[in-house]
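Field: COMPLEX_INPUT
Field: COMPONENT_COUNT = two
Field: RESIDUE_TOTAL = 445
Field: MODE = joint
Values follow.
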Amino acid sequence: MRLSRYFLPVLKENPSEAQIVSHRYMLRAGMIKQQSAGIYSWLPMGFKVLKRIEQIVHEEQIRVGHLPLLMPTLQTADLWRESGRYDDYGQEMLRIKDRQGREMLYGPTNEEMITDIFRAHVNSYKDLPLTLYQIQWKFRDEVRPRFGVMRGREFLMKDGYSFDIDRDSALHAYNRHMVSYLRSYERMGLTAIPMRAASGPIGGDNTHEFLVLASTGESEVFYDSAVTDLKLGAREVDVDDRAAVAGICEEFTTLYARTDETHDQALFDAVPEERRKVGRGIEVGQIFYFGTKYSESMGANVVTADGSRVPVEMGSHGIGVSRLLGAIIEASHDDKGIIWPEGVTPFHVGIVNLKQGDAATDSACNALYAALIGKGLEPLYDDRDERAGAKFATMDLIGLPWRVTVGPRGLAAGKVELTSRRTGESEEVSLEAAVDRLTQIYASR
RNA sequence: CGGAGCGUAGCGCAGCCUGGUAGCGCACCUGCUUCGGGAGCAGGGGGUCGGAGGUUCGAAUCCUCUCGCUCCGACCA
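Field: COMPLEX_OUTPUT
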């Protein structure tokens, strides 16, 4: 993409409504525009990152055998009356009447609807296990939306629902989700720690939240610092191997890590003092096993091998996709702007032409641009007629992990400059070497 | 929902107390110079002062109502 043809309305000054760094940078980098309290338009750059994150979530869900589908944002009140949650959910649920006076709602979550789909089409244990998920917009009429996309009213969420014949199988689904989530977050460059959580309005007793450590987080967290060293990495996991999957979960949940809701001071005190940490975290996902809470109230039964009918065992599992943008920025920025991890960056590399209109730099930039595209990379070429400082400032703000600087001085020696946004380190290399390096860097992503 | 604020040009703000021609910086447009970390000079365009009502010869300014937004708290992916 050539910046001169892109839509990137960057702001020099901080919008007054933005208090936390991710919100400020998302506004300043032209990623979002607020339309109303807690409701945002996603401008091209923001939309691009949102789609990258969504793509990672999809890939990791599909990798473990979960099936994508899409349910509507609007639901009928009837469905929610069946589960009893229509009256329980409270003011957070946005209620709407259609022209016939029928009561509708903008879905804050989809347990009822997925259960309705399930009971209509699944009758036998032979169809289990089954995990269906979607990535769809939700609406929760928060009392006090804030922090930009971190606590919006409208937000994009991955919500998945698992159906199993018995408790053991359901717990395996729970564990499988944990592993899949861990890998998703790692691909986004995040350290997200699973922490024992309280269940809230969804219900159920077995639940973990995934927290990204950040000083601006809304939850207070207590943890053994050794958990931050745990990595899933590139290890192969057979998702049907219950023991292997449970083993990974054990590895990630044995060390003490809890939010203030479930904090147990006595257990915490048992952690070696130098590893005992108290901090704040951003919740970016949660998994629940809730048994037959919905299947019983809504009659989602299956026939077992011996011919009896039992309510299906369920779990639900969510990732806050739009919130992740905020969380990633909170976890990865400096005073100049965002620093995107390679896994989610909107463009792989920025090209800065220091002397736009100069025949040599223009043609070198064009060649570089074409070569990168030829390697399957997406460069953002700043071809605006701006001074060097303005171009650097824009690149730093929008946070592409790599920058290639092309100027007459270096070019005279046949060199361009490859700079890491994260470390600020530069190396002078030939144009071809820069392309090779970048190709290598992204080969594994 | 309790408490506290704020709505003046795309963004950041001043002006309001003490009513009298709507301003500044950034951004934008034109020209010249400049050109490796948000350039300089000159010129230019853009605002129903959130909305409605009232007081007044006259309202951004005073009064009433209303809408919107933000912050702190309680609640939450």
